[in-house]
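Supplementary Methods. Inverse-folding protocol.

Structures were first reduced to a discrete structure-token string of length 426. This string, shown here, constituted the complete conditioning input.
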């Protein structure tokens, strides 16, 4: 098979790496890719926002399957365009991708299909929003409706923060068009976990649960980022809770999408809060997480390609269930100094060891500059390791992290502290 992976982050490096190892893969391309994807998946020039150009490129290169990494092209209808041209694509159409593209859509969908989530109100009028936030119960969570790169959520612990959030959304237009409509949510307490499933119509194939660290600094402090690390398994997410989340969240979501006439084909990512009343949805994403995808791929022992292909073709139910290695996986993200604020680019990276069976360095913001590997983004590398225990996976990852250098390189020292605690108290 000839496969095209779209995207240029760590997630897409991991997907390309796994696909390239499949006996069914004759060639995989990764577009635009990054400094690491080229070793497994060459790139070629292509404007992904031009859907006709993507279809034409797939036809010219006899692509059998397109795997779309990020959410924006899916929300923009790239999968619809490819399907209309008869090209198999892993990733939902624009209509079901609204589960990520619009928080009010997702909330209304969950309310209609009885999926547990926080109580909510939707505001299109800025003054009504401000008035509501002046008197609603606190803590409260204020969310820009549209895609805001994970930054459009304000957690307000007291009245002053709630009022300020209202001002930021309605008067300062801090999130631009994404904040023209605002969802105000009940604050949920608990530990967070991510549960991803391959979904093809009503067929749901759940993958191992993960946790990520969104905050930049140790102790889960500081600004939100795209993700500083991720790992699996999740001690708090027992098999009982996984089964409950499949039954109460993922299966009703898949069935609901079919009932609404917008069946899903791709990976559905449920961000869950493990509350005292059970798992409740914080958000849905219509794609693999980044960096969650990197440890997930190292945890799978099954060939990923037939699973992606069967999902894309609507025959996922015929596939054997994916098998997962015993033990644990851990990904530590290395970032540019200054991230998530402004940071320099073009720093020369050195010290990356050759991958082995247990540790793989997935690239994100890297670029080859006349043979030299240099930084080109905020999140630069995802050092991903597996082990018999979480402690072993984690120390293997950090051993490699400490070998890698560039000017300003930074990372969190405490990835997986919850899992480590869970393991030592078992
Ligand atoms: P989202 O982009 O919707 O996933 O929100 C980003 C982060 O905000 C989540 O990972 C949670 O940590 C937090 N969050 C979002 N909604 C809630 C909520 N209703 N209650 C508590 N925390 C929330
Ligand atoms: N790491 C969070 C996400 O991909 O949404």
């Amino acid at each position: 098979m000839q496969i095209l992976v779209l995207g240029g982050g760590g997630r897409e490096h991991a997907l390309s790496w796994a696909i390239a190892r499949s006996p069914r893969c004759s060639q995989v391309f990764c577009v635009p890719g990054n400094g690491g994807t080229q070793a497994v998946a060459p790139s070629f020039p292509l404007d992904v926002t031009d859907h006709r150009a993507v279809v034409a490129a797939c036809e010219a290169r006899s692509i059998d399957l397109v795997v779309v990494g990020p959410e924006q092209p899916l929300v923009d209808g790239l999968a619809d365009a490819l399907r209309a041209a008869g090209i198999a694509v892993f990733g939902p159409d624009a209509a079901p991708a609204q589960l990520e593209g619009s928080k009010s859509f997702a909330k209304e969908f969950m309310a209609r299909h009885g999926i547990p989530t926080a109580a909510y109100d939707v505001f299109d009028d800025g003054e009504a929003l401000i008035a509501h936030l002046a008197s609603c119960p606190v803590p409260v969570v204020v969310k820009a409706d549209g895609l805001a790169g994970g930054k459009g959520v304000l957690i307000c612990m007291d009245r002053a923060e709630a009022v300020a959030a209202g001002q930021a959304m309605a008067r300062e237009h801090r999130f631009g068009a994404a904040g023209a409509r605002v969802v105000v949510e009940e604050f949920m307490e608990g530990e967070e976990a991510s549960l991803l499933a391959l979904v093809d119509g009503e067929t749901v194939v759940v993958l191992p649960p993960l946790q990520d660290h969104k905050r930049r600094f140790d102790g889960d402090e500081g600004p939100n980022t795209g993700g500083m690390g991720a790992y699996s398994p999740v001690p708090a997410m027992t098999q009982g809770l996984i089964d409950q989340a499949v039954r109460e969240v993922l299966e009703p979501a898949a069935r609901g999408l079919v009932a609404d006439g917008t069946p899903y084909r791709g990976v559905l990512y449920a961000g869950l809060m493990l509350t005292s009343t059970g798992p409740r949805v914080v958000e849905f994403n219509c794609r693999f997480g980044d960096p969650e995808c990197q440890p997930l791929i190292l945890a799978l022992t099954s060939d990923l390609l037939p699973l992606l292909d069967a999902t894309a073709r609507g025959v996922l139910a015929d596939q054997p269930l994916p098998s997962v290695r015993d033990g644990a996986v851990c990904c530590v993200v290395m970032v540019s100094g200054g991230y998530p604020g402004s940071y320099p680019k073009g720093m020369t990276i050195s010290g990356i060891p050759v991958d082995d069976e247990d540790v793989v360095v997935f690239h994100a913001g890297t670029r080859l500059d006349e043979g030299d590997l240099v930084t080109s983004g905020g999140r630069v590398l995802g050092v991903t390791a597996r082990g018999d225990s979480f402690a072993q996976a984690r120390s293997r990852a950090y051993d490699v992290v400490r070998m890698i250098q560039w000017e300003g390189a930074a990372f969190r020292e405490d990835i997986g502290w919850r899992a480590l605690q869970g393991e030592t108290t078992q």
